[in-house]
Every structure is written in structure tokens, then in C-alpha cells.
Amino acid sequence: MRNQLAHSGRKVVWLALAASMIACGSAKQSSTIGSDSAAEEGGNFRLRAVIALPGRPLTAFDISWVEEPTQTYYLADRTNAGVDFFDAQNNTFTTRVTGFVGADPRGNDFSGPNGILTITSLHELWAGDGPGPQMNSSVKVIDLNSDPPSIVATIHTGGTRRTDEMSYDGEDHILAAVNNADDPPFLTLISTRSRTILRRITFDETLAHRFGETSFSNGLEQSVFNPQTHLFYLSVPELSGVNANGAVAVINPGTQEVTQLFRVHNCQPAGLALGLDNNLLVGCSDPSRTVVMNAEDGTIVREILEIGGNDEVWFNRGDRHYYLAARDNPSGPKLGVVDAESNRLITAVTTAFNAHSVAADRQNNHVFVPLRPPRAGHPEDPNTCVDFGGHQFDGRGCIGVYWSADDGEAGN
What are the C-alpha distances in Å from 42 to residues 131, 211, 335, 337, 409? Predict the structure, then answer.
């Protein structure tokens, strides 16, 4: 491990201010901001707490995750080469598990941790990591029951770039982990029982030709598992070198084959979340839109034109909202809130430069967004942690916690 596991001596700062103090396809549709009640709800949703982190300032990070039963928020913290643990009920930092490659000077493609998720039945957290000096990417398994939590297994995926986003099929006990930056990119299917690789699906020219394309020309992104269709879905940003043409690939975990490509245009799919009515919210990295797609047949249900430039997106079953980490939104970095019933934008609130990670706790509807400090020489960057929490956050970054007053003060 690069650092010792952090237990004590940590400084935890948590601030919560009252609202008065905060003032310092065939069925395709385009959306507008919805009803008066939605607008009122959006007016209540805002930053209401910030959490300080120990160690180096938070400037490099990746995926966020909330484990619902334990109300624990996890963050892939590249700056500190570990996975950070937070109490999502009380909005406090609790510990960090190190042993990852961290922020590699060669860039994100070599860094880690990256994608993370928990498998509650196994009391484990699985995390993608960079290739390290051995140039062999990996998935690491953290035992959450051990005291302290620790890495208990490393599964090499054989890539020369990072292992990134992942999803989990709890019926077949298969984890799907993507090496998005390798050329060609590939998806690894891993048995979570034996911790062995079942198959690597390479998104090369041969696979592209099966679907009338020449290449998967800009890597791969987030995947999700849909227990209703019993299929994996995987964001494909670009096909055949055409920036406007992307897709969501459909993978059958039984045959371990790509069975379909659901096409989507002017989107560049990145984040992906399964919501209501068997719909997928596709977090387009294209700043012009966000897309809702039906998972059965790939029909575009709605194009949401008020927000785009997304990376990670999250569906919260507690309030039936999607949350969008829209770091490249045209009006500046935003946390977007979309009603999963109407598929309409409710509101969008300011975050910070490159705020591309988000997760929500369904029990109290708190939404967690890592917020980095402004870049040197960029006065246009929001300084959200300092604006809310004061100068103790200068140059440090924080975790912003957003919620609506309608959700009360649960867990505060």
C-alpha cells in the first residue's frame, strides 16, 4: 500500500446552514422544465453541507457510490490513491483504504482507483485500478467486514491502461469491468464467486463489422445491469470515427456476447443509469442534451435539451430522481436533477470545475458530489467549498452534499 490506512488524527469539518444563510426514436420528445410544483421543488434543492477530507487536496477523483443498506458513501480518490469512506447519514468522513496507483503523471488513463461498486451480499467493494509499473490493469477487492477494511484480492485484467467503470449482475454473480482507454477497448466479465475472469469481450473491428460499423473509435464508458431484461448495457461514445454517432451496447451475460447496438445521435454516451419504466438515462458528454432510452428496444423516450456535458449519472429510488454530474454543461458545471416519472429537468445547481461524479442516498435523499478547488489562473472556476464552508477549505476541495428542504433534516 502506498499510504497507511487512515483512522485517526483526521479533521472532519461538516457545515449545514439554514436556507437564509446560504444566500452569501419513434416516441422521441424534447423536454422543457416542468410544472410549477417541479420548479418549487427545484428551488428548495441546493448545497446544504460540505465535508472535509484528510490528506492531499482533492483534485483527482472518479466514481462515487452509495451502498443503500449501510448508508455509506464511497469515492474513488485518485489524489490520495485510495477509496474514501463516508457516513452518508451524518455526512462525515470515516476512513480510507489505500493501495491504488493514484493520480499517475501520465494522465487519467493510467490512474486509479476508477470505477467502484459494492456487493452487499459479499460485504465487498470492487474497484478498478490503473496498470501500475507492471502495465497490467486490475480490479481490486476490499473486504468491508475486516477491521480495518483492506484489499484482499487483485484480479488482473491484462490492459495497459486503467480498468474503469463497472456493473454487477447479482443473479449470475458476474461483474462487468471496462478497460475504456485500451486500443481496442474491452469489457471483462469476472465471476465474483471464484474471482476469476470468465471472458474478455474486445470491441475491435471484427465486432464493429457485425453491426455495420468500422470501429469503436472513442473507447467505452459506464455499464449497468438490468434485472428486468437480464442484460448488461454499456455506453459507447463513438462509432466509426463519427463524433455524432454513438450507441448503447447490449450484452447477454448468459452467452457473454454483444447482441445489439441501440443507436443514439449527438450524444456521445458516457454515464448510464437504470430508472423507472425500464428506462435508461444516458448521460451524454455532448453538451447539447441528455437522453432517456427504453431498455427493451432502444427507443428514444425523450431528449432533455436543457442540460448536457455529463459524466456519471445516478438514479435515486428514494425521490425517483436522476442526478447528473454535468461538468461540461454550456452554462458551467452543474448538478442536474431530472424527474424520472416525467423525464423532465427539475433544476440544475452549480458545482465546481470538472465535477463529474455523483451518488445519492435513497434513505435521506442526500446527494454527494466531490468538488475540487479552482485551478490556478482560472478565476472563472467556482470556489464552491470556500463559498459555503469558509477559508478553511482554501485549496482543499470538499464533498458537497445537496438536498431539498422537502426532505427535512434527516441525518443531520
Answer: 42, 42, 11, 8, 17
The size of the chain, in residues, is 412
- Domains of the chain in sequence order: 14-406 (2.130.10.10)
Distance CA 394, CA 37 (A): 37
Burial pattern 2-39, b for ≥16 Cβ within 10 A else e, equals ebeebeeeeeebbbebeeeeeeebeeeeebeebeeebe
Q: Please report the pLDDT score of residue 94 as a whole number.
A: 98
Q: How far apart are CA 410 and CA 387, in angstroms?
A: 24
Assign 77 to helix, strand or coil: strand
Dist. CA 229–CA 102, nearest whole Å: 36
State the Cα–Cα distance between residues 152 and 157, nearest whole angstrom.
16
pLDDT digits (tens, 9 = 90+) for 315-361: 999 999 999 999 999 999 999 999 999 999 999 999 999 999 999 99
CB 303 within 8 A of CB 28: yes
User: Cell numbers of 399, please?
Assistant: 464533498
